[in-house]
Description:
The chain has 190 residues and is α+β, with helices and mostly antiparallel strands. The protein is 28% helix and 34% strand. The chain contains four helices and seven strands; from the N terminus they run αβααββββββα. It has helices at residues 10-23, 45-52, 58-61, 163-189, and strands spanning 32-41, 65-70, 81-86, 94-103, 108-116, 124-134, 144-156. The chain is globular. The chain starts with 9 loop residues before the first helix and ends with a helix. It binds ligand A9S.
Amino acid sequence: HLSVPPRLNDDEFNQLQSYIIDFHTYHLTSSQCSSLLAQHIHAPSDVVWLAVRRSDKPQTYKHFIKSWTVDEGFTMTVGCTRDINVISGLPATIITERLDLLHDENHVMGFTIIDGEHRLRNYHVVTTVHEIITTTAATEENARPVTVVLESNVLDVPEWNMEDDTRLFADTVVKLNLQKMVTITEAMAH
Ligand code: A9S
């Protein structure tokens, strides 16, 4: 029941399918929802990966963050946590995130929001970075490498809310963050 995420064509989907099965497929309970978003970036995948894993400076790559703190002697290893203060105007004040997954060779990272004052209960996200060959024009000569970031998440649907509202809110934040990632990494690459 895999469906092609928005913005990927069939050829790109075929190149990425095994990663989608391995890292972005969830078995949902009736009180959870999930989504998968894809973002093209015209920068080398190594540059994009370094930006994705820069957990020490999340406000550089993400919107809505006022400040953040990590424990003394912080190292980016599975199980580490960071606290993030959210800018005002959002239905959240502080969140605590825990790193769940980090594979530097495969460009896979995942974290879960484990605590805080916010509405995205049990938000779990996996981000993977891939270099693929894309054929934007009809001819093979136009085939060129492009980086694709896949970001999937799963979270609880609150009883007082609608699944669509929860999804729309989370997807909007993720899309804005992915666009910021494009701006920053494409500037770094040129
Ligand atoms: O940080 C991410 O990668 C993605 C999301 C959807 C984060 C959402 C958020 O951190 C805010 C941006 C603060 C919005 C949470 C958990 C709740 C919000 O209200």
